[in-house]
Amino acid sequence: MLPYGLIRPFAFSLDPETAHVAAICGLRMLGRCGLLPAYRPLADRPIRVMGIDFPNRIGLAAGLDKNGEAIDGFAAWGFGFLEIGTVTPRPQPGNPRPRLFRLPQAQGIINRMGFNNRGIDELIENVKGARYKGILGINIGKNFDTPIEQAAADYLIGLEKAYAHATYITVNISSPNTKNLRQLQGESELDALLGSLKARQLALADRHGRYVPLALKIAPDLDAAQITNIADALRRHRIDAVIATNTTLSRDGVAGLPHGAEAGGLSGLPLFDRSTAVVRACVAALAGELPVIAAGGVVDGAKAQAKLHAGAALVQLYSGLIYHGPALVKDCVAATRSR
Questions:
Q1: Are β-strands 136-140 and 168-172 bridged in parallel, bridged antiparallel, or unpaired?
Q2: Helix and strand counts by DSSP (H, E) for the chain
Q3: Residues 6+ apart with CB under 8 A from 211
Q4: Taking Cα atoms as reference points, which of 305, 306, 339, 303 lies closest to residue 324?
Q5: Which tens digit of pLDDT belongs to each residue from 138-196?
Q6: Can you list the pairs that 204-208 forms with residues at least 24 positions away whose Cβ atoms lie under 8 Å?
Q7: What distance lies between CA 179 and its chain's CA centroid?
Q8: Which is the catalytic residue, given 174, 175, 275, 319?
Q9: In whole angstroms, what is the distance from residue 139 CA to residue 147 CA?
Q10: DSSP helix/strand/coil, 314
Q11: pLDDT of residue 32
């Protein structure tokens, strides 16, 4: 493959979503044609998290490969694990375009995609067709037109269908781009949702003869009381991990920049401090009872290492890959190897 430094100027000359679609198509074709090496994670000391042995601490965050189309392509980059989705029970187009914006001066991205995906059935077929046999997370959400009061039904469909094909499953209740979704982080709503999911997880474990851990992905825009309430709910329902964090509604660090005022969730470097503060708060509130997986603003190895210093067990990459390409994976694995 061409070095990313040669590809990036062309990619950045395209509309961001067009470039994203082209990248996924390219990785999918290379993977399917056998033009990429078989999965070999970058070397590190394995770490056990959620009862799973991860070959290194660096993973692909949900959002880059929503439909699981390019699993083998991303696997060739050396990640310790991949997370695909967010996927919903039924296909949906997402929000109107344009809905994805680069902020290169800040190494940031704003998106208001709205869980655009082709539905969980197609994602599962893609998973079954992939050569990749490493650790795979499947990130599930609700359809935009499912009333928030019935959201649990969508998550239970996702859990049922993903269970046999995932190493772990992430419950996304924190995207800012689906109306009222973050309401599920409220104390009573979260308690009811986690109770339903945990009961179904245990039933599925009996049915399939294996336990698939559940992680909850939360927002960075939470106050101390909300984090405490979420931590209490995670412990009470014996959820296996928390991913901190999704994108932010804050515009700190991008005010006045081109596209800086666009609606949607902000990710990339401007999210780093806010998301890392939530990692630190979750680690303190959970007191080691379940692990924290960090996501948000990791653009180099030093930022990945900082997430571990904040108490995270694993680190996920997304927006940093848009700016730095696959070399970022190697840099982050090397920086976190000594932890």
A1: parallel
A2: 11, 13
A3: 51, 201, 205
A4: 303
A5: 999 999 999 999 999 999 999 999 999 999 999 999 999 999 999 999 999 999 999 99
A6: 204/159, 204/160, 204/163, 208/163, 208/164
A7: 19
A8: 175
A9: 20
A10: strand
A11: 85
> Residue 250 catalytic?
no
Question: In one letter, which amino acid is 129?
Answer: G
- Which of 234, 93, 260, 235 lies closest to 173, judged by CA? 234
Confidence of residue 339 (pLDDT cuts 50, 70, 90): low
What's the mean per-residue pLDDT of the chain?
96
Q: What is the mean pLDDT of residues 304-314?
A: 98
1 — pLDDT class (breaks 50, 70, 90) = low
Regarding the domain delimited by 4-336, which CATH topology (the fold level of the hierarchy) does it fall under?
TIM Barrel (3.20.20)
At CA 100, angle to CA 153 and CA 102, rounded to 5? 140
Q: What is the pLDDT of residues 42-62, one digit of tens each?
A: 988 899 999 999 999 999 999
- DSSP assignment of 285-297, as one string? HHTTSS-EEEES-
What residue ranges do the domains of the chain occupy? 4-336
